[in-house]
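Reopening this ticket.

The earlier resolution said the output was attached, but the attachment link was broken on my side. Pasting everything inline this time so it's all in one place.
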Amino acid sequence: MDKLTQIALIGPTASGKTALSIKIAKKLNAHILSLDSLSIYKEIDIVSAKPTVEEREGIHHFGMDHLSPNENFDVTTFIRLYHQSYEQALEEGKNLVIVGGTSFYLKMLIDGISALPTMSKKTLAKTDEKLRTLEETYRWLYSLDPDYMSQIASSDTYRIEKALHIFFETSMIPSKYFKAFPPTPTIAGMLPIYQIMIDKAILRERITLRTKQMIQNGLIDEICMLERKYTRAPNCMKAIGIKETLAYLDGIYDKKMLEEKIITHTARLAKRQTTFNQSQFENVIKGSIAELEKNLIG
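Inline output:
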């Protein structure tokens, strides 16, 4: 076997992607690659709505329980996970189902990213120095490369840092660097994309039910454990469900308000995800859970 069948499944949070992806993987004899910014962490189980080991029904899930909460990641992490999942599926005569919990990473796998130069100690030191005055550095970079920097928020430390790395290491402004080194797609070949379409009111009901279940299943205890073990410093501690629970623990919210805030913020996230999915992917096969299940499983 020198090739495999791969498909992608996208949809907003709480739309039913996880359960459907497991059914599809069983039907297609496939592994699953999860592209999710919270499920990737070990110990973050309830708040991520991660399927339990039993719910995974023996399907190997790449991209879940991959990092500790105090470890950072970026799109290159998912690029490595894609190659790992593809190669293992190929070796084992299996196929691959990619589930886009955070569809931005799927977009990057399809479009590709530009390879960055290896950073010298001198570059890293100069970058660290510049990041101490973020606003001033942003203005300086903007004066050098307005085309690139106009796409970046002045508070986006990650992308400002990347721009500094490129400039200090290569003496090229980022827009010229990316023109000289265009992105290379990671996913080659056919990748049909299936998008779950769901009524806004029904999705809100699902989000509400899931939030209530999270709280009943021990959300608050899980966040207490994470804070005690990892503090509030890691990026993941700012995720929806975690930040509201920390506010509850600080006495800012009561339990009813905690639930309402998580529901509201999750619904807003779902709206942003739907807008992104509608605008960023072409030739997508759209349908309800029932329609896609019939299409893919029969």
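Reporter confirms the inline version is readable. The mean pLDDT is 95. The longest helix spans residues 255-280.
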